[in-house]
Structures are given as C-alpha cells and as structure tokens.
Specification:
By secondary structure, the protein is α+β, with helices and mostly antiparallel strands. It has helices at 13-23, 50-61, 123-130, 151-161, 166-172, 176-181, 183-189, and strands at residues 4-9, 26-31, 37-41, 65-71, 75-82, 85-91, 196-199. 30% of the residues lie in helices and 21% in strands. A hairpin with a 2-residue loop joins strand 5 and strand 6. Helix 1 packs across helix 2 and helix 3 packs antiparallel against helix 4. The radius of gyration is 16 Å and the shape is globular. The two termini are 25 Å apart.
Length: 205
C-alpha cells in the first residue's frame, strides 16, 4: 500500500509559501481550500521529513502544523506542533514493530486536532476514527478483526470529521514521490499554477 507524508497548515498557501521555501529543502506545496495548504516534502532528503519540518514551520509561521505519516497502509502517525514545540502525538498502532507492545492507539484525543477544522466538527466520527473504530462498514475488516483495514481510511475519517472536502483529503494522501512520478495524474487533479515548488525539487510537469 501507499506510504505518504504530508503537513496540513491552517494558513493560505500564498501566505505560507515564503516560509515553506526557506525551511523545506525539497518538496511541493499546494492549496487545501481557501484557508489551508498542504506540504509534501521529499522524505528521502536528510532532515526533510514531515516530523523534522513541522517544528520549524510552525515557529516561523506562528501557526499550528499537523504532520501526518502513513506507513504501508498499516499505521498512521500524527503530530501537532505549535511555535516549534510538539504539543501532541498520535499513533494508531504503537506496537507495529514490537509484538509485545500495546496495539491500542495512543494520543486519541479529539481536542488536539480542533485547530485544523475547516468547518463544523463531527466529534463522534473524529473520536471513533482516532480510537481505530470505523463507523462505516466498508472500512471494517471482513474477518472481524477490530480497527480499520487500511490506515488511509482512518486518516480520511479524521480529516472528514474536521470538515475537509474529499478533494482536499485526496490531496492530503499524496506523497512527494508519487506527485513527481505521475505528472499526468497530478495535472488532472490540480492546476499546475497552484503548485509551489520548494527547494531543489524539480517541476513534475
């Protein structure tokens, strides 16, 4: 399954772009509605993954940053940063790499994510998603195992509960590598004039 790392920032892209160009060594940034933007850094560049960049960006912008990393469809990690300080961390499967560890999500506090709402918040859906308890049947494991089948669906429900439209959620689940390697698909889903190229990244078009 797809692995991706993105940052959601409640600042319009045109306002955030100067800071993003300064801080991000390589990546892309795109709008996520009129009041938000998304950053897709090249995570294969040293110190350029979402968790390394969220602090400096939040400090320079004076705005919160929600960093998300979804690994191989199995695990969703979220970090909330304010003013260069990590204020909250969520992990949907903290025991993924340790069979003896607890598989219960950590950091499943809906209040930690309210600053990233684009409209009215569905607190029930948000709480269920963070608890790795899907509301919709299609997201449940057909074998009866608890939790989401895919971590992408969990991430989708978190952003959906925060009132982000489907187009923005799809963009939030892109990765720099996929954007760079699929220019035709990228062109079909976003206007090339909306794309801000950061650092040493090359145009995907």
């Amino acid at each position: 399954m797809t692995t991706y790392g993105t940052m959601l920032i409640p600042v319009p892209l045109e306002q955030a772009a100067p800071v993003l160009r300064e801080v991000c060594a390589a990546g892309y940034a795109i709008p996520a509605g009129p009041s938000f933007c998304l950053v897709h850094p090249d995570r294969f560049v040293d110190e350029n993954d979402v968790f390394a960049l969220a602090g400096p960006i939040s400090a320079e912008l004076g705005a919160p940053v929600l960093a998300a990393f979804q690994y191989d469809g199995d695990r969703l990690e979220l970090e909330v940063w304010y003013g260069g300080i990590r204020a909250h961390r969520y992990d949907s499967w903290p025991g993924r790499d340790d069979e003896a560890a607890n598989d219960t999500p950590v950091g499943a506090d809906p209040a930690a994510f309210l600053d990233f709402a684009a409209g009215p918040v569905d607190l029930r859906r948000l709480a269920f998603a963070l608890a790795d308890t899907p509301i919709d049947a299609e997201d449940m494991d057909v074998d009866g195992e608890p939790g989401y089948v895919w971590a992408q669906a969990l991430h989708w429900d978190v952003l959906r509960a925060l009132s982000h439209p489907n187009e923005v959620i799809r963009r939030a689940q892109w990765d720099y590598c996929h954007m760079r390697r699929a220019p035709q698909t990228l062109a079909e889903m976003t206007d090339r004039s909306e794309l801000v190229i950061l650092g040493t990244a090359e145009s995907p078009f």
